[in-house]
Amino acid sequence: MSVDRNYWVDTLVRIAYPVLYSLSERRLKMDMPVEATARDRSDYTYLEALGRTLAGISPWLEHGPRTGEEGEIRARMADMARRAIDMATDPESPDFMNFAIGGQPVVDAAFLANAVLRAPNELYVLLDEKVKQNLISALQATRIIRPVFSNWLLFSAMIETALFRMGVKDWDRMRVDYALRQHEQWYKGDGAYGDGPAFHWDYYNSYVIQPMLVDILNEVGDQYGDWAELRAKVLTRAERYAAILERFISPEGTFPPIGRSLAYRFGAFQHLSLMSLREELPKELEPAQVRCALTAVIKRQVQMPGTFDDNGWLRIGFAGHQPDIGEAYISTGSLYLCTTVFLPLGLPPDAAFWQGQAEWTSLKAWSGGNVYLDKAIIG
Questions:
Q1: Which pLDDT band holds residue 1 (cuts at 50, 70, 90)?
Q2: H/E/C letters for each residue in the chain?
Q3: What is the pLDDT of residues 161-188, one digit of tens each?
Q4: Mean of pLDDT values over 147-159
Q5: pLDDT tens column, 313-325
Q6: What is the spatial distance between Cα 259 and Cα 217, in angstroms, rounded to a whole number?
Q7: Rounded to whole angstroms, what are the CA distances from 141 to 31, 83, 106?
Q8: What is the per-residue pLDDT across 208-248, written as a single tens digit (0 to 9) for each?
Q9: Rounded distance between C-alpha atoms, residue 111 and residue 128, angstroms
Q10: Does the pLDDT of residue 291 top 90, yes or no?
């Protein structure tokens, strides 16, 4: 196994273990600190931690090795993940989570739903029947929440898409269609969408918009002819945005701290990781160069002092512990969106992504190497 893959597995487990272990033992609300900058987020932070952790770890749980040391670790984490879903959705559990009060639950129920799409066997089929029903009921409970007229429309759409995947007959096609149509209207060009009607210089195209469009249309794109046509457009734009993200990574493994939600750290590269997982990177990008670039970013942020507290929980910050970088909606649970950078662990160890070393675009450019011309796309 490659050195980088070992490092990715170790780092993902280091981040995810406190969440999944504590929840599987019915003690997440006892164990997890709730750091927040402005207000009490205890009604939301636990579902944030679960949904976001599973959204990142799910491809590895579903497709990771079944043998050897990594296989044993994966199996233990998968078992904890299933018990965690049980504890989070059982109304009798001390860790039963809020899926219906306030607006935030629709966000993190969507990340949980996204995890089910990415690991349907490990995170749904292998659940006990009672847990399956509890999970469905929990996701359906979010239907009373009206999403904000922004990327939030995709959260409702993602939940309905997962319900479709779980065989629920009354999945709501309108919520999916509305989100897809609005984001098509919000497309700004050259691979970027607005977050609502306006364009924002931030990483929400990677945190939410493009990964969810890709995953939703991957699951239900064949339901209607216009959805299938849209899927082709979305994938073309997704390739372009992946190319842009790769160019954001500096020779030193840093990236611009622009926009909101910087406390999600390397979750800013979820979309690049998803396109790597799908093996649909732009032709000018070698999978190995993307791995090397992402590894540099992960190391740069994980190794900053203060990233974790003494018990291994993430702390608010971009590079280390920086409480002031957290917006009012940020709390400890929010930070686990960073796990989505690890999506390529769903690729087998012998995949091209894990083979060899290669310089990424900025590293080549700033060392005098040859780089591809960067070209905009039309449409």
A1: low
A2: CCHHHHHHHHHHHHHHHHHHHHHHCCCHHHHCCCCECCCCCCCCHHHHHHHHHHHHHHHHHHHCCCCHHHHHHHHHHHHHHHHHHHHHHCCCCCCCCCCCCCCCHHHHHHHHHHHHHHCHHHHHHCCCHHHHHHHHHHHHHHHHCCCCCCCCHHHHHHHHHHHHHCCCCCCCHHHHHHHHHHHHHCEEECCEECCCCCCCCCCHHHHHHHHHHHHHHHHHCCCCHHHHHHHHHHHHHHHHHHHHHHHHCCCCCCCCCCCCCHHHHHHHHHHHHHHHHCCCCCCCCCHHHHHHHHHHHHHHHHCCCCCECCCCCECCCCCCCCHHHCCCCCEHHHHHHHHHHHHHHHCCCCCHHHCCCCCCHHHHHHCCCCCCCCCCCCC
A3: 999 999 999 999 999 999 999 999 999 9
A4: 98
A5: 999 999 999 999 9
A6: 27
A7: 26, 20, 9
A8: 999 999 999 999 999 999 999 999 999 999 999 999 999 99
A9: 21
A10: yes
| Residue for token pair 């029903």 | 133
Other Cβ atoms within 10 Å of 289 Cβ, number: 21
For residue 17, the tally of other CB atoms under 10 A from its CB is 16
| Residue 37, pLDDT above cutoff 90 | no
Q: What is the pLDDT of residues 200-210, one digit of tens each?
A: 999 999 999 99
Compute CA distances 22 → 83, 86, 342, whole Å.
Answer: 10, 13, 21
- Kindly tell me the sign of the dihedral angle through the C-alpha atoms of 59, 61, 63, 64: positive
| Share above pLDDT 70 across residues of the chain, in percent, rounded to a whole number | 100
The residue type at 378: I
Sign, CA dihedral 277-279-282-286, equals positive
